[in-house]
Amino acid sequence: MGMVTATAAAALLASPPQGHLGRRCHLVVPGLRLRPPASSSPPHAAPPLRLSNFVPRCYITNVEVDVSHTSEQEALDDHPPLLPACAIPVVHLPDVPDASPFPLHESASHSTDFEELPVLSEGELHTIAATPAHPAGLYALYASYLFGNLVEQLWNFAWPAALAILHPSLLPVAIVGFFTKLSVFIGAPIVGKLMDHFPRIPMYTGLNAVQVATQLISAAMVIYAMKNVTHASTSAVVLKPWFIALVAAGAIERLAGLALGVAMERDWVVLLAGTNRPVALAQANAVLNRLDLVCETVGASVFGLLLSKYHPVTCLKIACGLMICSFPVLVVLGQLINRFSCHALDSSRTPSDESICANLLDVRKIVQNGLSAIRNGWNEYKQQTVLPASVATVFLNFNVALAPGAIMTALLMHRGISPSIVGAFSGLCSIMGLVATFISSSLVERVGILKAGAAGLIVQASLLSVALVVYWTGSISQRTPLLIFLAAIALSRLGHMSYDVVGTQILQTGVPASKANLIGGMEVSISSLAELVMLGMAIIANDVSHFGFLAILSVSSVAGAAWMFCQWLGNPTDEQKELFMFDPHFQVEPMLVADVEHHNNQLQ
């Protein structure tokens, strides 16, 4: 047996023939299990294991070795030298026990020559879970996300401000916003399906090119209007060719921006952080949310500062310069992300995807492909194991009243609240959102992503209920009820942003990588529909006195999201348990069963 072991170990160093590369191999412990060649002898007649009777393949620990009737001397001497970069781990085994058949019944005596395999400690497992798979690629992703999002947020503040300067009515801004949401609702499933079947880096470059081009077109239209349009009626403005071009370019720009966000937040960050490293993934999601909040604040502040010092046309030209400079920088950063992650972004792309991409890009079938993508996206979306978590995210988009925004600002200004208090409230909400990104990653580390998501929803629903009660029972024109009302809403942002981070990770874990963009695009599409519905409700109940009705709808939607998620968490399916097998919520039950069995064994 010792000679056979030495011969096989030496054969391990030989390069296998080309025809057998890439097959799975196995290890049988404690010794080597060599299968004799097929013969006409009966099954029970086991021939002696000799070197001349080796089968063409010998299985040893994930490495296939071909031994073609090799003599012992050939096996030991006639093998090619190893390459300098080729490292083969050498395992020193103790004396191999007797190779006689191993008795399986419990009463049999067992050999004591086996050694225990090393098992990682809890601290080592935690270290692995908190270490990203590709740290350098993840940092490059942060840089790309920061730079691209900063330019995008600056433009998101620039175009409405420019339109407000151009025309006093809110209708032009409302029209652009409406068609933007409509384009996202219709186009997100199509773009998501295309992104799932197209190489990541070329798609990333193309989307950035489309976004920058449409931003430049929109800026050019606004600059043209500011130089040529004088005082005109609202109907005359919205029917002008430059405004129609602005609406079309704005819709395409928003769709491209959301597609980039879905790709980086639902697909790229999962590959770079690691799907089986929940703590690292939670920390990466928290960093992306912090960068988003910082870009939202800095982008608006920078353009507001420019408007205070320069003419609006000059400010728009400066914004155009930033857009032009951003494109080559983003392209280079995309290549660096892929290079620093050992080309991880090139994975999961098969040659058969090219025909699907060509079919989706066929202009002659654009309507057919669009309807098919929406139908396919909806069917895939509703079959996901993590559907309740995604629907809870959609429900949160119905909260447009008890959140910092246009409706809340209009309410406070109508009640005669000081602008300083309104500004302080908006700033406090932003701070709470930033704090929530730190809390969410800590919650995931302590209780797992499922319980962390439930905690965020319950906190938000509870605090918004307090705000609703204060609004209906006391006058917010008085100082004490007003402060309680605003404080409850601001603190609810902790729960909202916590679930935003955790819910994203739940979808990242539960949605297959091949469908990440399709499902993410479908969720964005449905969320846009929810915002359109609430926008319609706000138009119907346009008087400030109807704010209580909108507040009830907002609280009901958040409470419904919390109830749905908790029901999903309390009644898990087998697929859910398998999907989140490493979550502490599903590790309690096996531990309890093991404790009960151990207790019963002690009693016996």
Automatic annotation (TrEMBL):
UniProt-annotated location(s): Membrane
A Pfam short name: FPN1
CDD domains: MFS_SLC40A1_like
Membrane topology: Multi-pass membrane protein
Family annotation (SUPFAM superfamilies): MFS general substrate transporter
Keyword Heme: no
Bilayer-crossing regions: 170-191, 203-226, 242-263, 315-337, 386-413, 420-440, 452-473, 480-499, 519-540, 547-570
Keywords (A to Z) from UniProt: Ion transport, Membrane, Transmembrane, Transmembrane helix, Transport
Top-level division of the source organism's lineage: Eukaryota
Known function: May be involved in iron transport and iron homeostasis.
UniProt family annotation: Belongs to the ferroportin (FP) (TC 2.A.100) family. SLC40A subfamily.
Name assigned to this protein: Solute carrier family 40 member
